[in-house]
Amino acid sequence: MGQSNSKKAMPDYEAPLRQKIQLLYNIRDFATEIVSATTEVIDAFNVPGPEPKRTHNVAIGLASYLSVHGTICSPFFEEYGKFLFLMRAGYDKISREQAIFHQKVIDKVIEPFEKWLTVDYKHMHEQILELRERAKRQHIAASKIAKEAHNSYLRQLIEAMDDYNDRISKILEQHAK
């Protein structure tokens, strides 16, 4: 209940600031989605490897399979063996291009966004929280000062009323004699 009162009492100049902070949070969400979706796209070309959390490019696996199969078939079916070696060369080229693409996406998309999320955004978020805490402390202090000023004003009014009551009592005593 105290928090809602303090939020209502915050100055109106904070509305543009709140909009910018919300925009920062939206950018964070967008960057997180980009990293996730980009990783998904890159991983679509890969299959799980023998080690946990390692993947192998599908084209590399096919090229290896075609190489082995072509070597076995060549002595018996020369044309088919040549075809398999040509297919292997094509898959080798595809796997190299995919590896280059993969690395470029990591270097130019994933790493910059992850760096922004883990370093820059984290720092900005901590600063925002610190500024909010400072604003809250200032608001509490300002409320306290306003309350003290109001109490001081009330005390002055009470003293003035007491003074008037004393004067009126003296006047009434003089008229009563």
From TrEMBL:
Cross-referenced InterPro entries: AH/BAR_dom_sf
SUPFAM superfamilies for the chain: BAR/IMD domain-like
UniProt name for this protein: HEPN_RiboL-PSP domain-containing protein
